[in-house]
Amino acid sequence: MGTGNWLAVASADHVRIGRASGFMQVCHGKVGPLRRIGAGDGVVYYSPANVMGGKDGLKSFTAIGWVRAGDAYRFDMGGGFAPSRKDVDWAAAREVPVAALAGQLDVTAMPNWGYQLRFGLCPLSAHDFRLIAEAMEVDEVELRPSA
Prior knowledge:
The protein is built from 3 helices and 8 strands; from the N terminus they run βαβββββββαα. It has helices at 12-21, 126-135, 140-143; strands at residues 5-9, 23-24, 42-47, 60-67, 73-74, 84-90, 96-97, 121-123. Strands 1, 2, 3, 4, 5, 6, 7 and 8 form an 8-stranded mixed β-sheet that branches. Residues 6-134 form the EVE domain.
């Protein structure tokens, strides 16, 4: 069972597709970052915008869940695009602007905190995961899988 928590980055429209279908993908479908994530790990998505490349300034946490057992797999979307994915049990959660947690999160403590997000996936402290879960109105203790 995984013991980590992760902050993934994607546009809100892409996150909503993954939530509806029970999967996650990061870094334009690369498998490498997904190999770092284990079964039972917590995942929070941060969406800088509603659509990829958008400038609307959404800057919100848009999904939270726990990774299911199983390896990353490729999914053929047609047109030669087959991104790697992992299955996730997404919680019913409300989207929360990162500004609502200003000054409370470890991940945003540095002045240029957004710089680390350019990789599309970074570790997230248990403290931050818990605060984000609470803000998203998710009881992370009750929902975290036991295996």
